Automatic annotation (TrEMBL):
InterPro entries documented for this protein: VWF_A (IPR002035), vWFA_dom_sf (IPR036465)
Protein name, entry field: VWA domain-containing protein
PROSITE patterns, sorted: VWFA
Domain spans labelled VWFA: 26-240
Coiled-coil residue spans: none
Family annotation (Pfam families): VWA (PF00092)
SMART domains in alphabetical order: VWA
Amino acid sequence: MHSEYPPTLPAEYADIEFENNAQRLPLVLCLDTSSSMAGAPIQTLNDALADWTRELHDDVSLSYSVEVAVITFGGRGVGAWRGPQLLDPRTPMSPFVPAHAFQAPRFTASGVTLMTEALELAMHVVAARKAELRASGLQYYRPQICLVTDGLPTDGTGHMTDSWHRLLPVLAEEQQARRFRLYAIGVGGITDRGEQVLQAFAPKFNARIQGFPFRELLQMMSASANAEQKGAGDEVFEKIFSQFKTQRPAWES
């Protein structure tokens, strides 16, 4: 298991990969790849990520402003992905990739549900990337973190744990300060207790969805990113999220 990340994450790709000095929008997908996701769920996730990647490349408004990082928690512990590459935690490389250059990883499902550590890493890489952008004189929109799971937080041995409670005051402060917007999505057979964890993490933007509608979920994240670029008010994000929760993908309405 590896859940720690270097304290500083110097940018390892030049910002000239963007064709202009567009305002950046960091987006982190924090994904459960534990053993309960084996079979159809992980295949559905892989397919949806591949489709979403193509859509990102084709979306003029997002492809040169959104930066994508992927965090997983499962058989390999907690890991950060730079596109299809799982980063060595000892290597100080940013996981963020410009959307127009992003390539989707392909996951296998195994292991335990280190949700707490994964969300901590997601918050850390967001804070590090914001510091990099400020140091480069670049502006950014409010980052988005999307946590997706079908289970409960466990420790490294697979036993359920209450360690996630340590995140609650931090998450409350960070979201109150508008440092990022967190979406917490329960899929598949997530239990009532699992749903309560997600409600605690993201009081406004949590959902319990039947099945594994990863394609719709990723489209919702794109719609939210577009709204962020337009300076939309909170009511717009709540409407987009409500449409996702009710499985009405009328993002443009």
